[in-house]
Amino acid sequence: MYSPFEQFKIKLLFPISIGDIDLSITNITILILIIIGFLITVSLIIKKNLSFIPSFWQLFVEAVYQFVFSIVKDQSGKKGYEYFPHFYTIFYTILFFNLTGLTPFSFTASSHIIVTVTLGLSYFLAWIFVAFKTIGRDFIYVFYPKNMPAWLIPLLVLVETMSYFLRPLSLSIRLFANMLAGHILLHILAQAVIFLSILSIFVSLPGIIVVCAVCILELGICILQAYIFTILLAIYLKDSLVSHA
Fold it and tell me: Which of 121, 109, 117, 120 is nearest to 10 (CA)?
């Protein structure tokens, strides 16, 4: 019986260092490169074989395209259209990070907080840069609500500031916690079914049904978390594009 945390272990494959900089290749590095390579390859193949009568995969890609575009349109407005490629890319990336964890003997990149925090913090800093570039000094009104009683302003500024700077944590911890907890639960249930199957295959049948149900639930959570990450990014982007003055 293996520890449920065994599936999240990062293994050093090729140690590489340049001075004090560690550029070692691990299993998570290989997985991320495989996912990125797969997405680029599939996108190029579908783009090359576009037709007036679309294939199943072309329909699937177009449906996802419309889905992500509707998120950007509804949450960020027309000003967010130019950032649509970022949303389309991050949706697919998060989705495949999540889905690979359901593959036997694979690894869930999004179950590591270093990965999710890096993504969340990168976009958080990027949206701040976009805000100063787009609305300039009016960005300060995100933290300083107008037309409020003077005695309430210090409290509101404190709350809005804390809320704003906790955004990268809300992005990263939600994704990390859901992927970690779900895969640990699935691992524990699977081990219980294996133990019961040693006793009797008939005793293990209800457990197998439960594991299959949890797998379907995890599949839905993988898609849902990619959607939530994307829609929150779009909501946060709107504060960087629209002045609150």
Answer: 109
Phi then psi for 18, rounded to 5 degrees? -120, 100
Cβ neighbors of 224 (< 8 A, separation 6 or more) are none
Tokens of 108: 């869930």
The three state secondary structure string of the chain is: CCCCCHHHCCCEEECCEECCEECCEEHHHHHHHHHHHHHHHHHHHHHHCCCCCCCHHHHHHHHHHHHHHHHHHHHHCHHHHHHHHHHHHHHHHHHHHHHHCCCCCCCCHHHCHHHHHHHHHHHHHHHHHHHHHHCHHHHHHHCCCCCCCHHHHHHHHHHHHHHHHCHHHHHHHHHHHHHHHHHHHHHHHHHHHHHHHHHCHHHHHHHHHHHHHHHHHHHHHHHHHHHHHHHHHHHHHHHHHCCCC
> Which residues lie below 8 Å from residue 157, measured CB to CB, with a gap of 6+?
143, 144
> Over the stretch 181-215, which tens digit does the pLDDT of each residue have?
888 888 888 888 888 777 777 777 888 888 888 88
In tens, the pLDDT along 81-94 reads 989 988 988 998 89
Residue closest to 80 by CA, chosen among 244, 234, 245: 234
In the chain, domain spans: 6-241
Cβ–Cβ under 8 Å, residues 121 and 168: yes
In single-letter form, the type of residue at position 200 comes to S
